[in-house]
Each structure stands twice: as C-alpha cells, then as structure tokens.
Design a protein that fits this description.
By secondary structure, this protein is mainly beta. It is built from three helices and 18 strands.
Length: 233
C-alpha cells in the first residue's frame, strides 16, 4: 500500500472525535479539535429543516447575524463569491426562481436542494430543472463520492457544507481559525461525509446559530450579498 493511502486511512481512523450531540429535534452538533484544525459542525435533518438561499444583492448586504435575526432562521451562513461591487458570482436559485444564471467553465460545485434532499454536483454536471427549490454555485468542492479532492495550498477561515450519501442531512461546517483546504477535506472524509462544498472564505466567513440552549455567532469582516439560512419546517 502506498504511503499517501496509508496516511489518508490513518487520518480517517483518527478524525472522528466522538458522537454527535443533539441540540434540537433533527439537529446535532459536533466539535472537532485537532492540531491546526478546529471545526464546529451543525447537522440538520432536511425533513425537519429547510435550507434556503437568500440573495440580498449589492444594495442590501447583511451579516449572518443580522440576517438570522431578521428572518427568524435557526442558522445563517455566508454564501458564495462576489465581485468588488458586491454582485454575487455564480448561479443562485432562491425559492424556485433563478436569480443569477450558471457561471460556465469554472471548477466549482453547485449545492442543489429540492424535496427535502441535498446534493452537490460539479458545475459542468448541473442540469436546470423546474423542481429545484434552491441552489448556490461556489467552490471548490472538498469531497466527491466520499473522497477528498486535490486542492490548492491555501489557509483561511472557512465555511462549507457537507452532505451524506442520501442527501437527507445537510451539515454547516465552520473553521473559525485559518485552516488548510486539503486538511479540511481529509477531515470531512474521515467523518464519513459523501460530498462537501466550500463557501466563500477569509473575511467573508461568518455564521450565526440559535437553537435551544446553543447560541453561536462568528462575525465576518463585512456584510455579504447572499447567504444560506436554515429554518424549521
């Protein structure tokens, strides 16, 4: 067996820190604390929670904290990339309406939500469908088929989403300290996720959550023009 394979198997064997902790009906929390990698993960059963893409636009950006409070959502996390004028880059579908079209020829992924299920596909594999309820295009993908992608060396605070093979559970992933993208991908593979997609990182990274006794707010460097929110059904 080649050394890189052995290293990956060892990482998978040691990554799981323990059981998930229930924080509400259909919602769980997991903390992963390793040298050079500290994560907060919040997993939601999409039969009990609804994930929604919110496109605020360049004129009305919001912080995750303000957006969660305004919408009454359980959680809010920053979304995808945007340009210097705060215009979102990449496709956004919100409540069945295509607000921004697909950005072609980019090595990004698309989080697609419909019928209480989530999936992550490469941009070139995305196919328009009127049954799609929500979608956000960003990248890169961290995992595909349970395997880490090959990622460029880069370290930053990060948010991401991860899903199980059936797509019933959507997990928000937060690295509140700079983390290497490859290390993050390997940790998520070790935790058993099937697919994962990185959202905009660095100063954009922010998350706000309030559910039961759990309250968490990580402020970003500025407000953002789009986001993903989690609501109870």
């Amino acid at each position: 067996m080649h050394a890189p394979v052995v290293a990956l198997l060892l990482a998978a064997a040691t990554a799981a820190p323990g059981p998930w902790q229930a924080i509400g009906p259909g919602a769980e929390r997991l903390r992963l604390d390793q040298p050079g990698l500290r994560l907060e993960l919040f997993r939601f059963d999409l039969q009990k929670y609804r994930a929604e893409v919110v496109v605020l636009g360049p004129e009305q950006p919001r912080s995750a904290s303000a957006l969660r409070a305004e919408t009454g959502a359980v959680a809010a996390v920053n979304g995808g990339f945007f340009d210097e004028q705060w215009r979102s880059l990449g496709m956004r579908i919100a409540s069945g309406k295509t607000v921004i079209g697909l950005r072609p020829r980019v090595d990004w992924g698309v989080l697609v939500l419909r019928g209480g299920r989530a999936r992550i596909v490469h941009s070139k594999e995305f196919r328009a469908d009127p049954t799609i309820e929500q979608a956000i295009q960003v990248g890169p993908r961290l995992l595909s088929g349970g395997q880490p992608m090959r990622l460029k060396p880069q370290s930053a605070r990060r948010t991401a989403v991860a899903i199980d093979r059936d797509g019933r559970f959507l997990t928000l992933v937060l690295a509140d300290e700079p983390a290497e993208a490859q290390r993050l991908a390997e940790a998520l593979a070790g935790l058993g996720f099937d697919a994962a997609l990185m959202f905009d990182g660095g100063p954009s990274t922010q998350l706000a959550l309030e559910l039961g006794a759990v309250k968490l707010t990580l402020a970003g460097g500025y407000a953002v023009p789009d986001a993903l929110v989690i609501r109870q059904r």
